[in-house]
Structures are given as structure tokens and as C-alpha cells.
Amino acid sequence: MKPIDTTRWSEGKVTALRQWTEALYSVQVQADVEPFQAGQFTKLGMVIDGEFIERPYSYVNPPGARTLEFYFVTVPDGPLTQKLTGLHNADTLWVKRKAAGFLTLAEIPPARHLWMLATGTGIGPFLSILQTAEPWNRFERIVLVHAVRFAAELSYRETIEALREQHPGQLEYIPFVSREDTDFALSGRVPAAIVDHSLEQAAGLAINPDLSQAMICGNPAMVDETSRILQERGLLRNRRRTPGHITVENYW
Ligand SMILES: Cc1cc2nc3c(=O)[nH]c(=O)nc-3n(C[C@H](O)[C@H](O)[C@H](O)COP(=O)(O)OP(=O)(O)OC[C@H]3O[C@@H](n4cnc5c(N)ncnc54)[C@H](O)[C@@H]3O)c2cc1C
User: Fold this and answer.
1) In this structure, are 121 and 236 located in the same domain?
2) For 179, left (φ over 0), alpha (ψ -120 to 50), or beta?
3) Global pTM?
4) Structural domains counted in the chain
């Protein structure tokens, strides 16, 4: 194995590992990283069987926080996630110093309403953004949609509740649970709920290109399908050269 390049990688120390469900975890780590923008991702790395394995993960914490946080799901036979779950306090977790990615508010054109649509661990970058001042100053209303299979997978509810209390009337949190019935979440999937307008009814807001910006993160099938449905509603993909309304990040 080549030596780890410490100009690019910071030797972080784990300060906490929180288990939410059998497969969902958050890891907190202290590491010396370069400034990043809320919504960006960095890479985490570990030496596994003599090999350095690195994977991208979104920051959950806002920029400037002393402790870095990452939210991940274990993947069966996934080389890195199988090892992340065995971390203990004070263990080494390498963090790439320089962050990357365009799922940031700097990329989002002005609008009245911001829709943040996440599946599973894709909620992470939105939590980072919502813990900064910018979205609250820029958007009248923000809708945070979190789509999961089981209600127990709706992590970070205390964080979201605290944000709702800090910004009364500005944040709508809409959970979707697809594989069990609940008395509080929408059932089924996000694209279908856009088609039949049940998402807009739940939010009390219409989605249209004059009002809305949408950020979508997580499972690529959901990202593609939601993006396609939003395009049928007149929203356009947001690109640097041709600004639009839909900004996406795929996790695989
Ligand atoms: C820009 C970017 C940001 C990412 N941020 C995160 C994050 O914040 N949290 C996170 O858990 N993952 C995130 N990922 C995925 C992450 O990098 C790893 O792929 C994942 O943690 C699995 O690592 P692994 O080595 O165990 O398995 P891998 O060999 O990397 O993955 C094996 C397979 O697992 C599936 N998979 C990967 N990630 C997920 C996931 N999040 N949910 C469900 N299935 C998945 C895919 O089918 C993938 O092909 C991100 C990926 C990208 C490209």
C-alpha cells in the first residue's frame, strides 16, 4: 500500500458512532478539513486488509462545526460500510480535506419555495444546508421530504423538529414511508405523489417553475423518476450554463 497522502487526507479521530436502526448509523469525527459549502460531500477512508478504501459521504454538520458528522447505511458486502460500523471512540477515520459537489445553495437560482427531496441517507446534505442561515433568508417556505421504507428509518427527527421551532411557519417536513402504514407519513413514493398532487396538498404549496426550486438526493432511481416528473410539470434541469429548477445528486 502507498503511504496515505496527509496533504490531502486528515487523520480524523472518531468521537461517536450512533446506531439508528440495524443498518443506519451516524459517525462523528474530529478532523482538520478545509472549509466546505453546506450540501457538499467529502471522502472517508480506512485501511482495510492492507488496502486504503475511500468512499464519498455528504457532510451532515454545517460548515464551521467542530465535530464532523456523516450519516450512512450499511450495504451488505459493502467494503467500507461493513468496517465503519465497527469504529470506536478514538479510532482513526481518514477524512479528505477538500470537499466537492454542487448540491449547494450557491447553485440554486432565486425562488420563493425550496423543495428538498431525499431518500434514505440522502437527507444528510439537506440537514447541513438547513443548519445554516442562508436558506431561511432566501426562501419563504422550505419543504423537506424524507422517503424511507420503514418509519424507524426517519432519522434526525429531533434536529428537524428543532429547526421547525427555530423557523416557525417556514419549514414543512413531509415523511414518506413505503413499506408500512403509519398515521403520520405519506405512503408510497415521491414521484407518484407529485403526479397525483398529494405531495403539494400535504405541503400546502404548488410546484411550478415560477415558484419552485427542487433539490433531489439519494437513490438514483428516485432521483431520475422525480426529476422526470418535475420536468413534465415545466421545471427544467439546473445547469451552470442553463439555469433551471432541478438540482440533483446521486449516491450510486
Ligand atoms: C456524491 C456521493 C455522496 C454520498 N454520500 C453518502 C452518504 O452521505 N451516506 C451514505 O450512506 N452513502 C453515501 N454515498 C455512497 C457511499 O459513497 C458508498 O457507496 C456507500 O456507503 C457504500 O460503501 P461500501 O464500500 O460499503 O459499498 P460500495 O461498494 O461503495 O457500494 C455497493 C452498492 O451499495 C449500494 N449503495 C451505495 N450507497 C448506498 C446508500 N447510501 N443507500 C443505499 N444503497 C447504497 C449501491 O448499489 C452500490 O453499488 C455517496 C455517494 C456519492 C457518489
Assistant:
1) yes
2) alpha
3) 0.98
4) 2
Residue pLDDT, tens place only, 209-229: 999 999 999 999 999 999 999
Would you call 21 exposed, middle or buried from its count of C-beta atoms within 10 A (0-12, 13-18, 19+)? Answer: middle
Which of ligand 1's atoms lies nearest the C-alpha of 79? Answer: 25
Q: Which domain holds residue 63?
A: 9-96
Domain boundary among 96, 120, 149: 96
- Neighbour count for residue 250 (Cβ, 10 Å): 14
CATH number for the domain that contains residue 140: 3.40.50.80
Which atom from ligand 1 is nearest to the alpha carbon of 120?
42
Ligand 1 pocket, 121 CB below 6 A? yes
Give the CATH number for residue 30.
2.40.30.10
Residue range 104-131, pLDDT digits in tens: 999 999 999 999 999 999 999 999 999 9
CA distance 11 to 33: 10
The answer to whether the CB of 77 is under 6 A from ligand 1 is no
15 and 111 together in one domain: no
